[in-house]
Specification:
By secondary structure, the chain is mainly α. It is built from 5 helices and no strands. It is rod-shaped.
Length: 170
Amino acid sequence: MSSDESKPKEQEEAAPASSSSFTMPDLSGVDVSGAQSNIRQGIHQGCKWTVNGINGMLGQLQVATKSVQEPVSGVMSECEKYGTQAATHCRVAYERRHEFAPYYVAGAAIGVGGITALRRGRLPAVALGGLAGVGTYLALYEPLFETPTIEWPFSNLTGNLGLGGGNKKE
C-alpha cells in the first residue's frame, strides 16, 4: 500500500503549475514603506542633480554666446550704418546720372583714349575713345535691358543726410 499512497503525491508535485493556479505570495507582513521612500529620495536627488548640471551647462553656454555675440553685433551695426550710407549715395548718384552724363561720356572717351594712346598710338586711341564714349552714352540714355523699378528701403534717409531726394516736407 505504500506504493499506492506515494503515487498521487508524486503526480501532484510533478504536475506543472498553470497560470490560473499561480497565486501571489502574501507580502502584507513586509514593511516596504521605507524602501519606497528611499527609492523616491534617490530619484528626487538624481533629478535634482541632473537639473542643476543642465542649468550650469546652459549658464556657461549663455556666457560663451554673449561673449561672442556682443562684439559681432557691434561690428554688424557699424557695417549696417555705413552700408546704408553707401547705398544711399549710390542710389542718389544713379538717380542723378543724367545731370552729369556729358562729363561721364567725356571722361570715358578721354580716359580710354589716353590709355590707348600711351600703348598703341593716336589712331587706335581715337577709335577706342570714341567707342567708349558711345558705349557710355548708350548706357546712360538708352538702357539696353528693361530694368525693373526698385523701391529702395532707405529712401526716407536721403532727406536726413542732405543728399537730395527722399520725402520732402512742405
